[in-house]
Design a protein that fits this description.
422 residues, alpha/beta, Rossmann fold, Dihydrodipicolinate Reductase, domain 2, 31% helix
Length: 422
Amino acid sequence: MNHALSRWPGRLAAMVPDRPVDIAVIGAGNRSSTTYQGLFQSLRPWVNVVAVCDPVKEHADRYADAVDAHAFHDLTDLVKADLVEAALVIAPIDVHHAISVTLSRTGIHHLVETSISSTLWQARDMAQTADEHGVKFRVGENFIRFHFDRIAKEIDKTGFIGPIGRVLCVHDHPGYHNNSRWLVLYGAHPETVQAVSHRMSVEPHWEAPHRYHEDEGFRCHFFRFPDNRLVTDLAGNLKGMLGRYPRPGYTELAGTRGTIARAAMEHRHGAGEVRWCSDDALRNGARHDHVFPIEHVVEDGQWICDRVELPIGPVEFRNPNQLAVSHPRAHSLSSVVSHVTDFANEVRGSDHCEFTPADAVMSMEMEVGCRESALRNGEEIPLPLADLNIEAERRVWDELRVRHGVDPHDAEAMMSIMIARP
């Protein structure tokens, strides 16, 4: 393992393995084609795509031709070919569990897209099966790697605003992604969860040609972390329709003498700032008397860094995962590159892991706990969940059983189901 820059002159470099990992891409639908396929040039030092597998022959063949790899239309045939060390699973969530345990049982390391699974039982089984077979199993959570979270973590490390005891997040992305963000921010797992939900009728409207709405949901999640830390995470209409606040919404990280904040702007990544109270302000009303803007630096279609000038000195997060080509969504795509490079490095022996299997499962514990709490009218529920014989799990299980005609916890039965992603 090394940090060599020679392959990419003039660019920042993340840790580079001694040789790329031979991988299969499992799933050649829209997400895989529009996000991952274009990143493999940037990922050449870390991964070498040698196979593509998708149940839709047209998808697999087209993708394989584009990346110069072997095409497979059945996971069993891919495994028997013995071509790969690892796999990127970019398939429908319904089959994440079946694919994951199949790969673990055959000794293939794998990185699964979010969300980890459909049920908490599946998530726990995925992590346990990988551990039993000595397989590196990771979940590709990119939200923890977005630029605001990166610079906020660096600011928090300085202690400038004091310990962050409370988070308020409005209209961003409640659910698995945001759950993961709070785990990483606090470096701990929550102790309890509470949630309420609401749905109301709205004027019929079209979000897109294939998305028609007559009602609108809303949910509010509360997570209590150790050391008296609280997260309040709420949202309804995430796309900003009907005049609702647009993503990334508004976020406050509340410290003991200041706040790190971000608000939505015309551009998707929003604008951040640090608000701080001097000693004089603390003695006279405690209105913040200093504001330090966070600068999001993009040059020639590359996310370079995020930085802020504070009285204690500059604080900066520099992006170690720049792209091989410029892109208008560089800040989000670099986050995807980041979780793939981390995974490849772990396969090659690195012990650095930003988002462990235990974290990935806990994010699902939080999500299922929220569903169950909402069904119980906001009851506070301890985490991790002691009993999976709960209504929230049963409802998802029943829905999947009706949809696919087999037990969704039976990996072999689910592997027989062809689920195509558009």
